[in-house]
C-alpha cells in the first residue's frame, strides 16, 4: 500500500509542505506587489483549475484529450450568454452552464470514447475546431469575432479588488476540484479508472464496466473545465471564440498536467504554476511575439527527456534517495525477491499447502 | 481426489452438469476461419482442458466465450444462460474469470493494487467507498498469500518476474470470486517448479468448488490435471473425453503430428 510504504518522516514532510503551499496560495494576494501581478495570479489559478479538471480524464484513465478547450469555451460562453441574453444572475449562470456542459458531455463522451489512443486525441481536437467555427460564424447569437461582453458580477469593485475576489473564487474552485480528485483517487471507482489507464481490456475482463467508468470520468472532467471557463468569463468579461476554443489552451492543460505529473493529486497544480508563470513572464518580457510558444515547447521537451513522470514524482524520487536509510527499502525487497525466486526454484515440491509457505520471515522487514 | 478417479466416475455415468457451452460458434478473420462451427460443452465443477496444435482456434474460442471478441455466429451459454456477445465485464459478473495468454498485469500499479482492482463493487456506495478498506485489503492479502506473493505486495507489478506476474494475474482473477476460471496457457514460459505450483493451486481450488477451463500446450500438465479434455483442430473439436482416452485417439495424433 502506498501510504504504508512511505516512511513516516516523508509523510510528515509532505504535510508540512502542503501547509506551507496552502498558506502561500492564500496569502499571495497580500504579497502581490501590484494589480498586474495579482491578475497574473488569477490567470495561473485559472490554469490550475483547468489542468486539474483535465487530469480527471488524462490522469486517471490515460485518455489524452487535446480538446478540453471545448468545455472551457462552452462553460465561458454558456455563462456569458445566460447573463447577457437571459438576464440570469452571474453565479447562477455559472452553475447552470456547468450543468449544461455536463449534460452535453454525455453524448460527446459516448461518441468520443469509442476510440482509444491517437484516434481519441484527433476526435477531441475535431470538436474544438467545430465549436470554434460555429461560435465564429453564428455571430448574431455569440457575437462572433467581435466578442461577447459579459457584465461584471460586482460592478462596484475597483480593478484590484475585482482581481482579489476572483483569485479566491478560483482558489475555492481549485480546492473543490482537488478534493474531488482526491476522493476519486482513493475510491474503488478510481482504482477501476487507473486499471483502465494501465490495461483497458484486462480491467474489463476483471469486471470493471470500463465504458461507464470512462464516461463518468469524462463528464466530471468536462464539468470542472466548464466551471473554470465560466468563472473566467465572469472575471475577464470579454470572450472571443479564437481564444475560448483554441487548441493552444487545450494543449496548455496537457502540458501543465504532464509537467507536474498526472498520477499526482497536485501535479497539474504545480505544472500550472510553472507553465503559467513562465508564460506570463515571457509575454511580459518579449511582448506580443510568439516566443512564449517556443519556450513552452522547450519546456515540454525537457520534461519528456528528463522527467517523463513529471516534476513531482521526480522530486519525490530525489527526496527518497537523499533520505537517511530510506534508499534501502526498495533494494532490500528486490534482493529478497531474487532470493525467494531462487529458493522457490530449488524446492519444486513446496506447493503442498499454504502453511508450508508461512515461513518467509525476512519479508516482514519490508512492511 | 485424483484426476483419474473423477474421470472414471464420469465414464461410469455420473451426471455431468454443463458449464460453459458453445453451439455452432464461428469466427473468421478475412478468409481464415479461426473457429469453425464449434460446438463444445465443458463440465461444471471439473477441470476441463482445451488442447490442440498452434492456430487451431483455442484462444479465439476463449475470447469469443468471454466477450473479448464478437463471434460471427453461434451461441455461448453459461449454466443455461445465454451470454453470447455479452461485454467482458458482464461475463465476469456472471462468474467467469480469465487470464491472458501473454500474461497481463497492471504494470504501474502495486502488486496489492493489482488484486484490489478485481474487488467487485455491488452498489454506488461501495463504488465510492475506499479502495483500501480493511476488509478488502485483508481479502487481497489472503489471495496473495495463497499464490505466494504476499512478500512483494508493495512492489509495482512491472518489477516482478514473468512467472510471478502469472501468479499475480491468477490472484487478481480469484479476487473477483468467479466460479469458473479460464486460464490461457498457464504453464507457458514458466519454469517447471512454478508449473508444479500452479498445478497444485488449480487442484486445490477445484476441490474448493471452482471450475477450470485450461488452454495448454504442456501435455504433462494437461494429462495430470484435467478431468475432461477437448481437442481442437482447425477451429473445431475433433475429440473429447478423459485424458487417457484422448491421448490414444488416432485423430488427435494425426492433428498433432500432421500425418
Automatic annotation (TrEMBL), chain A:
Stretch list, region Disordered: 337-367
Keyword terms, alphabetized: Cell membrane, Membrane, Transmembrane, Transmembrane helix
Acyltransferase among keywords: no
Keyword Membrane attached: yes
One family name in Pfam for this protein: BPD_transp_2
Source superkingdom: Bacteria
Lipid bilayer topology: Multi-pass membrane protein
Transmembrane spans: 12-31, 90-113, 120-138, 165-184, 211-235, 241-259, 266-284, 290-312
CDD domains attached to this UniProt entry: TM_PBP1_LivM_like
Localization of this protein: Cell membrane
Name assigned to this protein: Branched-chain amino acid ABC transporter permease
UniProtKB/TrEMBL annotation, chain B:
InterPro entries per the UniProt record, alphabetical: AAA+_ATPase, ABC_AA/LPS_Transport, ABC_transporter-like_ATP-bd, ABC_transporter-like_CS, BCA_ABC_TP_C, P-loop_NTPase
Keyword Transport part of the UniProt annotation: yes
Signal peptide: none
One Pfam assignment: BCA_ABC_TP_C
GO MF: ATP binding
SMART domains listed in its UniProt record: AAA
Protein name, UniProt field: ABC transporter ATP-binding protein
This protein's record includes keyword Metal-binding: no
Ranges for domain ABC transporter: 20-259
Key words, A-Z: ATP-binding, Nucleotide-binding, Transport
Native source species: Motilibacter deserti
Amino acid at each position: 500500500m502506498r501510504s504504508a510504504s512511505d516512511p513516516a518522516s516523508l509523510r510528515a514532510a509532505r504535510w508540512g509542505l502542503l501547509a506551507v503551499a496552502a498558506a502561500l496560495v492564500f496569502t499571495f494576494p497580500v504579497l502581490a506587489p501590484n494589480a498586474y501581478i495579482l491578475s497574473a495570479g488569477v490567470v495561473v489559478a485559472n490554469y490550475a483549475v483547468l489542468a486539474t479538471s483535465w487530469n480527471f480524464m488524462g490522469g486517471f484513465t490515460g485518455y489524452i484529450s487535446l480538446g478540453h478547450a471545448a468545455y472551457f469555451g462552452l462553460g465561458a460562453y454558456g455563462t456569458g450568454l445566460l447573463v447577457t441574453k437571459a438576464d440570469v444572475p452571474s453565479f447562477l449562470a455559472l452553475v447552470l452552464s456547468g450543468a449544461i456542459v455536463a449534460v452535453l458531455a454525455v453524448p460527446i463522451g459516448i461518441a468520443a470514447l469509442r476510440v482509444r489512443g491517437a484516434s481519441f486525441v484527433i476526435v477531441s481536437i475535431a470538436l474544438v475546431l467545430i465549436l470554434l467555427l460555429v461560435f465564429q460564424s453564428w455571430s448574431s447569437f455569440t457575437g462572433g469575432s467581435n466578442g461577447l461582453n459579459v457584465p461584471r458580477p460586482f460592478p462596484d469593485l475597483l480593478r484590484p479588488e475585482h482581481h482579489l475576489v476572483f483569485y479566491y473564487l478560483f482558489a475555492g474552485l481549485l480546492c473543490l476540484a482537488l478534493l474531488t480528485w482526491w476522493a476519486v483517487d482513493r475510491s474503488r471507482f478510481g482504482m477501476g479508472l487507473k486499471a483502465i489507464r494501465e490495461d483497458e481490456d484486462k480491467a474489463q475482463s476483471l469486471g470493471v464496466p470500463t465504458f461507464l467508468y470512462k464516461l463518468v470520468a469524462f463528464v466530471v472532467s468536462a464539468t470542472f473545465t466548464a466551471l473554470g471557463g465560466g468563472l473566467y468569463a465572469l472575471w475577464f468579461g470579454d470572450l472571443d471564440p479564437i481564444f475560448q476554443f483554441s487548441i493552444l489552451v487545450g494543449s496548455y492543460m496537457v502540458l501543465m498536467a504532464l509537467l507536474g505529473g498526472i498520477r499526482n493529486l497536485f501535479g497539474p497544480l504545480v505544472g500550472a504554476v510553472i507553465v503559467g508563470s513562465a508564460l506570463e513572464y515571457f509575454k511580459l518580457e518579449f511582448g506580443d511575439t510568439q516566443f512564449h510558444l517556443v519556450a513552452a515547447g522547450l519546456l515540454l521537451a525537457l520534461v519528456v527527456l528528463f522527467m517523463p513522470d513529471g516534476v513531482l514524482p521526480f522530486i519525490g524520487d530525489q527526496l527518497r534517495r537523499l533520505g537517511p536509510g530510506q534508499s534501502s527499502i526498495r533494494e532490500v525487497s528486490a534482493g529478497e525477491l531474487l532470493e525467494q525466486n531462487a529458493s522457490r526454484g530449488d524446492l519444486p515440491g513446496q506447493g503442498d499447502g499454504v502453511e508450508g509457505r508461512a515461513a518467509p520471515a525476512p519479508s516482514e522487514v519490508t512492511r | 481426489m485424483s484426476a483419474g478417479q473423477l474421470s472414471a466416475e464420469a465414464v461410469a455415468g455420473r451426471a455431468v452438469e454443463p458449464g460453459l457451452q458453445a453451439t455452432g460458434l464461428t469466427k473468421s478473420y478475412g478468409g481464415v476461419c479461426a473457429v469453425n462451427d464449434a460446438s463444445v460443452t465443458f463440465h461444471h465443477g471439473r477441470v476441463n482442458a482445451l488442447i490442440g496444435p498452434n492456430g487451431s482456434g483455442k484462444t479465439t474460442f476463449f475470447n469469443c466465450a468471454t466477450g473479448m471478441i464478437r463471434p460471427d455466429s453461434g451461441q455461448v451459454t453459461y449454466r443455461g444462460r445465454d451470454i453470447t456477445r455479452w461485454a467482458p465485464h458482464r461475463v465476469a459478473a456472471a462468474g467467469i474469470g480469465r487470464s491472458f495468454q501473454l500474461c497481463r498485469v497492471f504494470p504501474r500499479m502495486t502488486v496489492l493494487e493489482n488484486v484490489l482492482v478485481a474487488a467487485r463493487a455491488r452498489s454506488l456506495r461501495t463504488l465510492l467507498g475506499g479502495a483500501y478498506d480493511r476488509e478488502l485489503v485483508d481479502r487481497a492479502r489472503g489471495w496473495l498469500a495463497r499464490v505466494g506473493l504476499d512478500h512483494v505486495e508493495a512492489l509495482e507489478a512491472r518489477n516482478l518476474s514473468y512467472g510471478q506476474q502469472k501468479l499475480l494475474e491468477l490472484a487478481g482473477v480469484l479476487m473477483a470470486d468467479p466460479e469458473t476460471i479460464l486460464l490461457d496457457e498457464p504453464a507457458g514460459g514458466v519454469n517447471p517448479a512454478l508449473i508444479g505450483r500452479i498445478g497444485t493451486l488449480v487442484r486445490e481450488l477445484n476441490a474448493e468448488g471452482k471450475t477450470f477451463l485450461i488452454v495448454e500446450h504442456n501435455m504433462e500438465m494437461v494429462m495430470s490435471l484435467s478431468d475432461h479434455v477437448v481437442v481442437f483442430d482447425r477451429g473445431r473439436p475433433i475429440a473429447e473425453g478423459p485424458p487417457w482416452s484422448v491421448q490414444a485417439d488416432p485423430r488427435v495424433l494425426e492433428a498433432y503430428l500432421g500425418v
